[in-house]
Design goal:
By secondary structure, the chain is α+β, with helices and mostly antiparallel strands. Helix content is about 20%, strand content about 30%. This is ubiquitinyl hydrolase 1.
Amino acid sequence: MAEDQPESVIIGNIAVEPVDIDKAFDDVLPILPEEETELEGSFTWNIDDWFSLKDGKYISPRFKIGDFEWDVLLFPNGNRNKGIAIYLEPHPLDGKDSDDWYCCAQFAIVLSRPEEDKNVNIVNRSHHRFNSNETDWGFANFIDQNHLKYPTKTRNTPLLHDGNLNITVYVRVLKDPTGVLWHNFINYDSKKITGYVGFKNQGATCYLNSLLQSYFFTKYFRKLVYEIPTDNESPNNSVPLALQKAFYQLQVSNDPLDTLELTRSFGWDSGDAFTQHDVQELNRILMDRLENKMKNTPVEGELNEIFVGKMKSFIKCINIDYESSRVEDFWDLQLNVKNMKNLTESFESYTELELMNGENQYAAQDFGLQDAEKGVIFEYLPPVLHLQLKRFEYDFNYDQLIKINDRYEFPESIDLSQFLDKDSKQKQPVIYNLHGVLVHAGDISTGHYYTLIKPDTDDKWFRFDDERVWRVTKNQVFEENFGLNRLPDEQIRTMTRERYQAYLLDRHTSAYMLVYIRSDMEEKLLQPVTKEDVPLHVIEQVEEELVERAKKEQEIREAHLYVTLIIYNIRNFINYYGLDPIPNELLKFSYQDQTNGKEHALSLKIERTTRIESVCKQIKDNLNIPQSQDIRYWKMGTRQNNTIRICDIINMDDRNMTLEAALENEGDEAYSTINMYVEEPYLDLQFLNTLKTNDIIAFNEITDELIDDVRSHITTYIKKLPEDVPSISDTTDRSQQLVFIKKFDVKNQLLKGFGYTVINETDTISKLGQSVLEAQNIDLKKINELNMFEEINIGNTCPLSLKSQFYNAEIGMGDIITFELMNVLETQETLTGPLFCANVLDYYNYLEHRVNLRFSKVSNSDDDYMINETEDNELEISNNADGNANSASSKFNIWVPSNIKYSDLAKCVAKRTGIEPEYLKIFAIYSNGRFPLNSKSTLNDYLLKDYNCNSIPPFQYEELSIPLKEFEHLRPIKFYWLKDSYIHYQSHEFEVAGNCSVAEFLDKIQHRLGFSEEEKSKILLWTNYDFEFQGVLSTDTLFKQISKQFLIFGRILPDELDLFNKFENYENGKVTSTHHLRDIDESSSSLIDIPSASSTPDSLRYASNPENEGHLVVVSQYFKDMENKHGISFLFNLIPNEYFPDTKRRLHMKFGLGQKEFSRIKLGILFTTPQGKSFKSLQNYSEEELDKIVLFDIMSNLDTIFMDHPDRLRSHVSHDRPMVIKN
């Protein structure tokens, strides 16, 4: 754009016809693909004397093209640069809104030499969305000034002809069907332009925003959500209510919404919000939560009616009349994208028949092995069809997820009738129309989601991209989201950087999820949702929040007009039990459970223009302070050590001054909130003692009642005093060394405000001590029993010598002095407990380290030594500090110091639960596990190093049947139970003694898993270490004989167990079962020619003739390299006279993979020969050769079958956050 310059001068003239430069309009201004032309026009501006142009800016006469008059802005000496600057500027004709107009135009500006325009010219092209904010656009450096005046290397003639120059403008005005062509989205109002609003992104919640918009525009679904009963629920822990509110706000709001309330209802923290999860995973979890919430309501099962279809998986024999099938529900379909051209091909692949013949024949019940066809067919297709396109796949070669960016087309409408079972009762044809496209732009590790939605049947598409919503064309819906096939490297290398970036963006932007609606249900599912469909309580909640938000926004706008005074007084101080003289948010942990509400200050919102006289009157009226009494107003501030103290007196003497002026004098005019302390001299501790000495009042501590009494009668009380008592009515000469006094109440274990007084710096601290004793009616002779301390800050409390002067002890304005009485401390003999503090220093230490622990009882524990709760009903009590064994609860909070010993913590928990502390087992619960507290530990050992209130984990407890110290000597065992395969397992944790036998451990497993005695007798237990087989566990083996590094596996394997039991002298754990292939040469001879294996090793000898029974070999897994071992190593029995195809089939059945996956596994064997160990890959043999091989004849016991394939048991990496909706 042109920079602001002095007023421009109109010069030159517009030719009747534009000059001819010997080029067609479309050659000068090539048509932009995909854009539609509204009109075109051109004009020539002739400048007859260039050399006379001395001003900075000139303008051409205007020329009408369409609904605009156009002119050219010329900067002959450059626009802040050396080149000539030229800009094009349209002006809307009368009748156009001056602020709301725009014009999308493609344009070219041509400089040409008059009379030689065809041969001597230069062209520059651009396009722009002109509007009231960007009224002109063009070229800041169109041409160097010298190139205009003189010939150049490429042009023998200058553009000027005797100072004459032609400037020709070509304009093509384009249609803007979406309203956002070339829009920069500055000050863009989605609601105003489209009628819709978006969601704000919390960090990485674009995938959530996209899914929510898709559901919102499935309008029948929105109505169902509104019908879920949520009247008495809180949106913080109710997903349906939070979703109802989000949907209603999308209906009525004019501004983008945030999803904080919704994600809070999920139980998510900020970490979840900044973790980009899978849309399909979120979709299924959310639907599951809503479906459960709809149970026993009028809308139960309605979600299934919309989203759930039925498919039949079947195996049908070819030569006999037999079919095995099962019908399953589906919420969405995952369709292959790789090697597919379009959606139809994906459906064809999904329903493709697999022929089961040869080695893969089907074992039909009662008919034996049969040739069969295996496949999937649809029984019913739902009204709303969610299609998950498998853009992300696991690449086993690279051992990582990759994104499939190839081109993949999806239609606007599709007929899926051909994929329905011919016996389906669903009405045909089954035609679906596309209504939603969820797009992922990016790669596997980074990316952004947005969604394209057709809200109605009127064929208008919109893009919902977090906060913004705008119209899009069908080309943007379809073509731009098909993805892009990889171009040849040769073509890529020829690209400019800009073109290459565009290529990458096109390739990495593609549809990830499609939402189709069945054509016969469109009218019902897309019916408008009105306010009458929304629950009344949802409307009321949202409107209340909008009113509150508007109120807060107004307060923010008007904040400069007001100041809020937070006013503390002595009543707050004596009712406060924490650190500092008033509640300090940084020290909240020191007092938050010991409040009674009286510690809260008075808050007054006052206009800055209010006079001081009125301010003082309001303060006194609200605190019931006599208007006749003179008081002092102190400003409270934060010291460098983050403590709060009084710091300066606020001068309120000039009663006609405004509050704003008073604050300016104090340098506080910029503050919107001021913390103040009101000092009432007649409530000074020394003055109260004077009243007591003269028998006017009686007290032994300052109470609310005493404060009220003195305030009400102070005038009368003053009159009763002798004349020689100093007056308190004039505060001008009163000392500014005001100190606060606290008392440690050892009996009630409280640190409470006692009062305040002014001091003389030259007085000794004992004088203040005498005032303290006098106030409590204690003989002054007991001054030596008084201990006094200065509360400096958290963790810093210093003892004070009564003989020291205040000046020497550095005690002054705002400081806090705490005292305790020694004679009271003698009561500690009767006041005992794990948290009892015998003196003030112990109590300050307790306040410094105290933390709030949330406890709950372990539920459904499978711990063998845990005593399970027998009562069904559990009592939950509120948070209080005096729970005992008679009010046992399963959930409670307790305050304890972070350095508390476990034994003392157990006593605190025992007091709340009624469980003997020796039998308590306590756990700290973190996201990555449950950590039991050791009996010799302190609580600090289980807290984060720099913990704060928000990082304290929840805790759980359970009651043990044996003392914890005995329990801790048990050995933790992790046991892996394999039910019917070697790729899926259940893990169980046990605690066993070192002298526990495997037979006793089997009993524990039986108790936990619940199998029969017969099944127990067939269980084989074995160990692995570093993915290698170590040995079988016999029933008499003790756990102290088993290495703690071994993993223990178990499975019902009657054949292997029976064979193992026939071995003699088996040395557990001393057999090496695998070898490194690099150390073994592959045998060059054929397996068919190898004689029977050598005799069985001594470590594994049969009790009777072994050759007729079988061999036990080890099966070990790795991927590509033997160093890359994985999975479970296990025993497998070889049967005499069994040919390899049958052996492979048995191995396949026991291993558990599907036929396709298992067929990809590369098998090899490590076997014993007279010369030693030899390795042979079985991949090099033909089927005819493999049919003749009998592994029993080749392999000995504990030889190895190797399986080369990717690890399918990959665990989550440490930074993965599994997604879960917790509420």
